[in-house]
Design brief:
- 2 copies of one chain form a homodimer.
- Chain A is globular.
- In chain A, helix 9 runs parallel beside helix 14.
- Chain A has 15 helices and 17 strands.
- Chain A has 3 domains: 178 residues, MoaB/Mog-like domain (Molybdenum Cofactor Biosythetic Enzyme, Chain A, 3-Layer(aba) Sandwich); 78 residues, Alpha-Beta Plaits (2-Layer Sandwich); 167 residues, Maf protein.
- In chain A, a hairpin with a 2-residue loop joins strand 10 and strand 11.
- Chain A is of the alpha/beta class.
- The first copy, chain A, has a 6-stranded mixed β-sheet, with helices on both faces.
């Protein structure tokens, strides 16, 4: 059986893409997931909401690839033409699916709303399509099979919404399992993402790349997702059990070298890791924020159930609030300034006391672009943490713009909580140069 | 002269794109810039560093578009094949350019480095190419002209580096001027983005689309950037002054219809608009957050200089914090629950008092996914604002996941501040169905 077709073509549809109004991250996400199935993407194409352009590219992709992933154009408006054009291109009638229609209605009912009449068309599918449910939006997706070259299996075209969170979920729950089933007895690929914080990409590369040397079935990759650096480990093996075991060994080797700078696994953010640790250990926290301006509390409350451990946050921007709400001494403020070790310590201790929490955490610093001085340049950060064992405080020098300084400071603070709960050391030297450099004298 | 070709095709080249390792923002940037020259992009394509794939797509693009923008594959490594393949595709010899070679050497000298031998190939160009200098990197770009259809002007293919800052600079300094010269005495295009909050895309479409009817030189477009909906107005005219005047009239017409739901212009976020209003009017604010968990304070402190007006924030997640820090009555909490009108009002008033601010703002609600009930489903939000004129409070029903409920609640809260400072009404009816629907009994 000869099948010289490409593995995957990825098509995204929408005028907004061709006008450059949005950066299309769906294509990279789709290709990444396909690679874990050993399916290589040969082409990414975007076309506008134009029937002729859509029909042409659908036809070409169906002819040239074994799997075609399409995203966008499944919405309820006049511009959303993908379903209609797919039906026309492959000679199918449009058929309304009663079950999907009921699910769309139910989606609106959950929010006490009536379904608008134009949403009904989202329950139309080309005849013979395999419908892909959408648990987080109104637009179901669908899969069409069209004949492949003589002797080769059919081409599968998956049509998915353009909204990333709907697309991601449908991809994982509907598309990947169907492809795995189809690929059958191929070798298993397993990949894992290790999130590190506090070490640069080139250092990671230097420390780890030899782990994959000489083994074509082991791949180690690196990428930055500010403020984290990610290590992606991938192995191929005959079956899932062997692959998982091999991956476990590789992860252990990576951790042996990178140590406690590995802060998480997968898409799990540091606030989720910290949330779980706080819950597990039944510890509570209260946060006093100056430079981070509420970002730490906001990140902690992004995690469902955060009321169990986050008792209180105070954004003490004004000195008066530091004194009144946190009990910082006016003398310390006058003598050392708001960005200083004594004030950071008093903020953490005062917050712990006021909030009645196990841990009090405090940030004070200069986010920029203004407010810096020779002694305390923009990016100066004091972090302090108070708990039953005492209070620690350290100074860092951040080197980014205001938004990234806030983000990096909040990440450092969350990592302090993680370290404290795990019994790991926290010192000024815990984080390398970029984060902790003292300003030059 | 008939020229049925597409305006622009954008091609990006690199294995990393097809593996999904990076999100390609170059394509949207390139298309955006082309649109300002009245050149519409008809297709975006990415192919791997594969000679056959590159040759095929270059040939197709040169045949089908008037302008082809190519980025990537100009680096010094073995994988960087774009120049070589371009030469082969269009039947040109590769010729080394002495001046470019000297500039690459000079680039390394500036950083006290020797040029590596593989960088020399970056001074090779297809014969007849117009070389595009790269002041911020080692890889110069180039432009090739190949014959167009009979009677039509030649196709111009611009080859640029994939590194965004090198690409952006070359585009602005080398490519755009060449295209402007070629397009000659064309008309001027001016565009403006109006940000609306509280009105749906389809309603905007219905209210505004006739403003562009019958005038091919006026374009009105819509897009969503959660939680805002954006109206993009674009006009073409003989010269810049006429275009600007026409655009001013169009903006006035849009505002006459959409009214105070226009919350900003351009890329300016609502927190920046609110910050400017607070500064101008010398008003101060303190924020008590439950459902938003610090996000309002964090957004306000994203704006430089926010210490001038944001006096304090309290993330009062625990009931105890609501009582102690904000003076909410335990009886109200017991009788009505934390998500209720009396508690929202007391939070806003208590925050105003405690923070010594002109305005006290409070949020309480159920972000989800858990914690909802029949009476107070997930997405229930109470907003309250207290100032010298009294206290207002309204209930909203949000319909998203936790992250978006937080974001939408923070946006509503910021818009309340904007409205209050501008003397605009705030009522439960201020925002249409999507935001303010009361739950059905």
């Amino acid at each position: 059986m000869s099948d010289a077709r490409d593995g995957v073509w990825v098509l995204t549809i929408g005028d907004e893409l061709l006008r450059g109004e949005i950066v299309d991250s769906n294509k990279s996400h789709l290709s990444q997931r396909m690679l874990a199935l050993e399916l290589e993407s040969a082409r990414h194409v975007s076309v506008p909401d134009d029937p002729a352009a859509m029909e042409e590219i659908l036809r070409e992709a169906a002819r040239r690839a074994r799997v075609v992933l399409v995203s966008g154009g499944l919405g309820p408006t006049r511009d959303d033409l993908t379903t209609e054009i797919a039906a026309r291109t492959f000679g199918r009638k449009l058929v309304r699916d009663a079950e999907s229609l009921e699910q769309i209605r139910a989606f609106f009912r959950r929010f006490n709303r009536e379904m608008a009449s134009n949403n009904a068309k989202q329950a139309d599918f080309p005849e013979g399509a395999d419908i892909l449910p959408n648990p987080v939006g109104t637009a179901p997706g669908f899969m069409l099979e069209v004949p492949g070259p003589a002797g080769a299996p059919p081409t599968q075209l998956f049509f998915m919404p353009g909204v990333p969170r709907e697309l991601y979920r449908m991809l994982d729950e509907q598309v990947v399992p169907r492809l795995e089933a189809r690929l059958g007895a191929r070798r298993t690929v397993r990949a894992r993402l290790l999130r590190t914080f506090g070490i640069g990409e080139s250092n990671l590369d230097r420390m780890l790349s030899d782990l994959a040397q000489g083994d074509p079935d082991t791949v180690i990759g690196f990428r930055t997702q500010f403020p984290d650096n990610l290590v992606r480990i991938l192995v191929r093996a005959a079956d899932a059990r062997t692959a998982d075991a091999k991956l476990d060994v590789l992860e252990r080797d990576v951790r042996a070298r990178v140590g406690d700078l590995v802060v998480g696994v997968g898409e799990r953010k540091l606030e989720e890791v910290v949330a779980e640790l706080l819950r597990e250990r039944k510890r509570t926290i209260a946060v006093a924020e100056s430079i981070t301006g509420g970002l730490i509390a906001s990140r902690l409350t992004d995690v469902p159930g955060s009321s169990a451990y986050l008792l209180e946050g105070i954004v003490a921007y004004a000195n008066d609030a530091k004194v009144r709400a946190l009990g910082v001494s006016p003398e310390s403020l006058a003598q050392h300034g708001a960005v200083s070790e004594p004030v950071a310590r008093q903020m953490a201790e005062g917050m712990r006391r006021a909030g009645g929490a196990d841990i009090g955490l405090a940030t004070t610093g200069i986010a920029g672009p203004d407010g810096g001085s020779a002694e305390k340049p923009v990016g100066t950060l004091w972090l302090a943490l108070a708990d039953g064992e005492g209070t620690i405080a350290h100074r860092y020098q951040l080197m980014n713009d205001r938004a990234r300084n806030k983000e990096l400071a909040s990440q450092l603070a969350l990592d302090w909580i993680r370290r404290r709960l795990l019994g790991l050391p926290i010192s000024a030297e815990t984080f390398p140069r970029l984060l902790s450099a003292e300003p030059k004298k």
